[in-house]
Amino acid sequence: MKRLPKFLLSAAMVATMATSFSAVKAATPPDTLVQAWQIDDIITLDPAEIFEFTASEIAGNTYERLINYDPKDVSKIYGEVAESWTVSPDGKTITFKIREGKKFASGNPLTAEDVAFSLQRAVILDKSPAFILGQFGLTKDNVKDKIKQTGPYEVTMELDKAYAPSFVLYALTSTVASVVDKKLVMQNEKDGDLGYNWLKTHYAGSGPFSIRDWKANEVVVLERNPNYDKKTPLARVIYRHIKETATQRLLLEKGDVDIARNLNPEELAAVSKDPNIEVDSGAKGTLYYLGLNQKNPNLAKPEVRKALKYLVDYAAIADTIMKNKAEVHQAFLPEGFLGAVNENPYKLDVAKAKELLAQAGLKDGFTVTMDTRSTADITAMAQAIQQTFAQAGIKLEIIPGDGKQTLTKYRARQHDIYIGQWGADYQDPNTNADTFAANDNNADDASAKPLAWRNAWDPGPLTAKTRAAVMEKDPEKRAQMYKELQQAVLDDGPYVIFLQQIENMAMRKNVDGVVIGPSFDTNSVAQAKKN
């Protein structure tokens, strides 16, 4: 990576010196957008591995995919790297025509070879998001036969079944389908790793911005890609890791940052009264939930799973801790998705919970741990849940950690309870059904690792029902199938889903053009500017 200019290094160092903020006054440059955000969940910059919120947003601003959609109307799918596509009569082969004349930030031309390589590479590396492509019958062994370059600007993708075309296209809008620069990546390959170790901390894309630098738990710097189709108004975008929300507010009010991303309800209300600041918001397909590890013998009892659903004060959390930042939602499909269930059958009912615990042979309660990312919102919600659990005799020990620590432990099935967020990977209901309601292999060494697997849950017949739903062509019948799946998970699943996110960005009034998209990777600064 290029070395950061001195003024950027100084900004990065200032980010770690909270005590000096009150003495610092430095308006951000007119061609630079500076965001204060807690970015400690970044594990990798490789699109084939990215599966975290912050890195996904960064990838959305730095890489292009074959297909994309209008964030204001997700039903409008369009070709990004693909100019057009056709589906074979049997519904099992899609042929993509690649746009000519596109270039990567490196200056290398973007061709069908790069597209085929990128999709093949994601399947072969088999990192966390690979299942999004693997669900079409693609494996390490067959992907080079199933995804082929069939011309300088043509790629064909052969599916194992005739899925609904919209399902396939939405899957190709996900981060894992980003197109990477084959020539640049393979120049940095070592020991047959397809450039994996290099791309974890480097960049090889064609999006509006390139990733200039990433310093873990400190700063990410994006820089205008001179080869992008449409020049970005901004020269650079800086994400500063500012953990404390009060510090984010102070920096925003002083003009040292342009956007604050993690303000709590009281801080949002306060800054909204500042004539130099406005708050923008948008509904997200992101859920807050508890994951209950079924390896824990107490949590594996159906009565306990249901009892915990009666030990969350949903309304109080939504109205206080997450006021204007989330609304109560308990089904695994976010509102707005095909077939989403918007009824919320659970509420705080300690008597009901105690009755269920007694049926499970745990009338005096039990002790359990919860891994909790150390953000203000998550920590506050965890503490509120700790208090309501205690009313039924359940002693909940909160184990704090940064995003990387808690996610790594969760993905290894080493938790008792995990409190976190889940964002839809693409705008088709299968994206959440496939992870909450299906688990093809519950063994520790399984290759596919959806949320059901992470929580060691075998959903039984729900897996087959999930697979059937994705094949249904009739939208009304398909919607009904997803409603039934959601009800089954509401009744018996190892999750306590409690909120759907409303994202807020507090920004200086001279900032314009920032898009809050419906998914965690669709927040866009491509056309952002400062007036």
**N- and C-termini, Cα separation:** 31 Å
Number of helical regions: 19
Structural class by secondary-structure content: alpha+beta
Task: Estimate the global geometry from the Cα principal axes.
Answer: globular
Chain-averaged pLDDT: 93
Tell me the major beta sheet.
11 strands, mixed
> Helical proportion?
25-40%
- Domain module count: 3
Secondary structure tally: strands: 19
Identify the CATH architecture of the largest domain.
Roll
How large, in whole angstroms, is the Cα Rg?
A: 23 Å
What is the percentage of strand-forming residues? 15-25%
CATH homology group of the largest domain: Dipeptide-binding Protein, Domain 3
Instruction: Give the C-level CATH assignment of the largest domain.
Output: Alpha Beta
Fold-level CATH name of the largest domain: Dipeptide-binding Protein, domain 3
Pick out the low-confidence regions.
1-25
